[in-house]
Amino acid sequence: MDLKSFYKISYGIYLVSSNFEEKQNGCISNTIIQVSSKPAKLSVTLSKDNFTTEIIQKSGHFTATVLSQAVGMDVIGEFGFKTGKDIDKFAKFNTKVDSLGTKYIAENMSAVFSCKVLDSMDVGSHIIFIGEVEESNTIGDEPVMTYEYYHHVKNGTTPKNSPVYQEETKKSGFRCSVCGHIEELDELPENFICPICGNPVEYFEKI
Ligand SMILES: Cc1cc2nc3c(=O)[nH]c(=O)nc-3n(C[C@H](O)[C@H](O)[C@H](O)COP(=O)(O)O)c2cc1C
Question: Which pLDDT score, from 0 to 100, does residue 64 have?
Answer without folding.
Answer: 98
